[in-house]
Amino acid sequence: MGVMKKAPRSQAVKTPRRAAVERHALDFASGWDYAPALETVKPGLREEYGMFVGGRWCRAADGGETEIINPATERVLTRVAAGGAEDVDRAVKAARGAYEKVWSKMPGRERGKYLYRIARLLQERARELAVLETMNGGKPIRESRDIDVPLAAAHFFYHAGWADKLAYAFPGADPRPLGVAGQIVPWNFPLLMAAWKIAPALACGNTVVLKTAENTPLTALHLAQICQEAGLPEGVVNIVPGGRETGAALVGHPGVDKLAFTGSTEVGKWIARETAGRGVPLTLELGGKAANILFADAALDQAVEGIVNGIYFNQGHVCCAGSRLLVEESVVETVIRKLRDRMATLRVGDPLDKNTDIGAISSREQLEKIRGLVASGVEEGAGLWQSACRVPERGYWFAPAYFTGVTASHRIAQEEIFGPVLSIMTFRTPEEAAERANNTCYGLSAGIWTDKGSKVFAMSRKLRAGVIWANTYNKFDPASPFGGMKESGFGREGGLHGLRAYVAL
Ligand code: NAD
User: Fold this and answer.
1) Spelled out in words, what is the top-level CATH class assigned to the domain 48-286+489-504?
2) 3-state class of 338 per DSSP?
3) 286: CA distance to ligand 1 center in Å?
4) For strand 291-294 and strand 445-449, is the pairing parallel, antiparallel, or unpaired?
5) Catalytic site residue 285?
6) Whose CA is closest to atom 9 on ligand 1?
7) Which DSSP string do the residues of 78-96 spell out, in sequence order?
8) CA 20 to 30 Å from 437, out of 6, 24, 79, 174?
9) Is the pTM of this model over 0.90?
């Protein structure tokens, strides 16, 4: 990354009503830069991948394939089989066979051993998986290395522990598996979402057909290799990469006993309508438009760090990203100054470089969506500030940005942007803060920053969000349930609540 240009510190809050675009960066580096620190591990990428059905690797019945692109270079990484309805059918039948013959009959103690083995293999192959996740999705290696892969392993460890203790998880009940679980994941946390879904399903004695997102199937396919290496009985886990039609085939398959979906609210609603009346238990983890609420009494430097982590982390490709910042009016100028200073130090560039903070946007389509929403913010009269950091010529990039002068009716205050763009608003009283935070159709997560514990409790009772962080943001743990309210979906993943979704009592 090149040296940043010096820019005036001005016009932070009061921006003109029309199309005001500031592109500033502070000269934090004073003429020097970090040397590149590239991750050098080769991830064992194959020239082509099949799908994993019944313990075997196979091509799609119609021979369909998808080219997988590295969003940081726009180069083709590999080709992956793209499953269709016939492949989904084969996978569901394989999962049914494994459920009836082996997995549902196996004592929890034995199932737990497989899960432990998978968890350990994930740890052993952590570097390879982190590099693969970064090459496929564009997220910085620091995040795939420190967040995605360790958390994926932690989910298998956690659920391995439950496999033989389900009677204690639901005392007085007789927890039984549901059967074949159909699971659909999005592109933003490919390995982690697969682990969130597969680990509890297996721990409870279900078998799985997992559909990956079309453009990010690689780590889930390497997880399938790990399942093979762990000696998991054939058909217990089946992975079918593919797009919308593949997902729809899984949703509509009569052999599926449970559906778990993570993705957009639009598709989640469609799935809810499709499955209505079929009696298939459903969990939906959908979109979000989280508010970080910053009170004047908070430790501002820490809060700014948390806000930066909440929205610029993983390029904002996070369902629970703190994409709205509500700041108590008396400190807004200070907060924006601190935020801008910090943002100017964020490094955008090669995701395989360990110094990179913000990697590539995961696809051209997503980049266009971000650009479109940002243009609407400018058009509607909000003031845009964007870091002037240099970005590579090839690949999909969006320099971190924030909007001021945002009102509740702006699209950037209501729609999920799924990019490194923050919308800043102000409030005067806690009641106003809660009202503004709740003024969205979503209810996935929120953050509260204050020095007063009592304020945290009072605010969290008012906020309509499934996950609320206090004086921190984006912290995850397998023991802690995660999920939304309102149009962010229903059901929880993680913890005892997450297990409940995979058993009949
Ligand atoms: P998306 O809904 O377009 O796709 C998600 C998955 O569903 C993909 O695998 C896709 O192929 C599949 N799909 C698409 N149409 C389908 C259909 N008709 N039937 C069945 N499957 C179908 O979402 P996306 O753009 O890939 O992912 C981003 C969205 O996911 C964002 O809205 C984000 O907030 C959400 N998300 C939510 C959580 C959460 O835990 N709440 C976590 C991560 C992402």
Assistant:
1) alpha beta
2) helix
3) 7
4) parallel
5) yes
6) 213
7) EEEE---HHHHHHHHHHHH
8) 24
9) yes
